[in-house]
């Protein structure tokens, strides 16, 4: 059973003051197995070894939301959440597993990845997940999605200004974007603040932390939507990454 995920009950407890139920642990295990299988046909993720998968996919996904009490209560109360550029389902799928009362929309521009995720959703019996194929630039201009979400998540998708331009248009006023990053500098905070201001948001919090097994540095950027986003954002496909705000 080399593919058995570690339980890490103590580390969950120490770092996030939370532990998965047996059912959630089983779903984490199933997710890992489905990704190993899916990787044979699709380039889903390089992070497959059990400990590394636990730390860089499961723990990292949940670290962005669990310590934030006020975000948790909105998740429990049934928030609508969008995960932009979800890839193999991170951070959206682990969050869907731990927050069954929220509705998570997994968005990716690659049809094959969304097909894979539809299989995951069905095998894990996740009743609270929707899937969506499309580019964030287009989805952000559609009335059925624009300003409709309480929480927008984005990890490992392009430069930080593009992440802000993808997330903020999708949020309701008062909603929150969480951008997952590795390293972060003060200079980037200035660029980000300028972009966020144009998009109708403000930088609420920047948190640095280290991952519990390898002590890798991570940052989560929390952006609050405080005004309507001007209709010219998001700009057309490709522009947010080519001409970052
Ligand atoms: N969030 C995942 C995957 C990151 S890889 C993780 O952290 O593991 C980036 C993913 O974003 C890819 O699957 C790619 O197809 C998707 N993507 C890139 N640009 C996008 C866009 N403009 N709109 C929607 N999806 C996008």
Question: How would you sum up this structure, described in words?
Answer:
This protein is α/β, with parallel strands linked by helices and 245 residues long. The protein has one domain: Vaccinia Virus protein VP39 (Rossmann fold), CATH 3.40.50.150. Helix content is 39%, strand content 22%. It contains ten helices and seven strands. The chain has helices spanning 9-16, 22-38, 50-63, 69-76, 92-98, 111-123, 136-139, 160-167, 186-198, 239-242; strands at 80-84, 103-108, 129-133, 149-155, 171-181, 201-210, 217-225. It has a seven-stranded mixed sheet with strand order 3-2-1-4-5-7-6, sandwiched between helices. Helix 6 links the parallel strand 2 and strand 3. The chain is globular. The protein starts with 8 loop residues before the first helix and ends with a helix. The model has no long low-confidence stretch (mean pLDDT 94). Bound molecules: S-adenosyl-L-homocysteine. The site of S-adenosyl-L-homocysteine (SAH) has 17 residues, from strand 2 and helix 7. S-adenosyl-L-homocysteine binds at residues 84-88, 90, 107-110, 113, 135-137, 155-157.
């Amino acid at each position: 059973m080399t593919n058995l995920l570690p339980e890490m009950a103590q580390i969950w407890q120490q770092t996030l003051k939370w532990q998965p139920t047996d059912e959630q642990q089983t779903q984490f295990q199933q997710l890992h197995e489905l990704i190993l299988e899916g990787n044979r046909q699709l380039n889903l993720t390089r992070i497959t070894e059990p400990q590394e998968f636990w730390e860089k996919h499961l723990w990292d996904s949940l670290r962005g939301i669990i310590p934030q009490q006020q975000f948790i209560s909105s998740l429990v109360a049934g928030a609508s959440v969008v995960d932009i550029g979800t890839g193999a389902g991170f951070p959206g799928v682990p969050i869907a597993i731990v927050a069954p009362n929220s509705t998570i929309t997994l968005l990716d521009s690659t049809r094959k990845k969304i097909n894979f995720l539809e299989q995951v959703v069905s095998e894990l019996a996740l009743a609270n997940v929707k899937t969506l194929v499309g580019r964030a630039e287009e989805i952000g201009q559609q009335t059925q999605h624009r300003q409709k979400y309480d929480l927008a998540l984005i990890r490992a998708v392009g430069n930080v200004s593009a992440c802000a331009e993808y997330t903020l248009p999708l949020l309701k006023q008062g909603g929150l974007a969480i951008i997952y990053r590795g390293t972060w500098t003060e200079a980037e905070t200035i660029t980000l603040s300028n972009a966020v201001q144009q998009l109708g948001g403000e930088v609420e919090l920047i948190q640095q932390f280290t991952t519990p097994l390898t002590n890798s540095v991570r940052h989560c950027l929390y952006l609050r939507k405080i005004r309507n986003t001007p209709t010219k954002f998001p700009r057309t496909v490709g522009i947010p990454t080519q001409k970052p705000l």
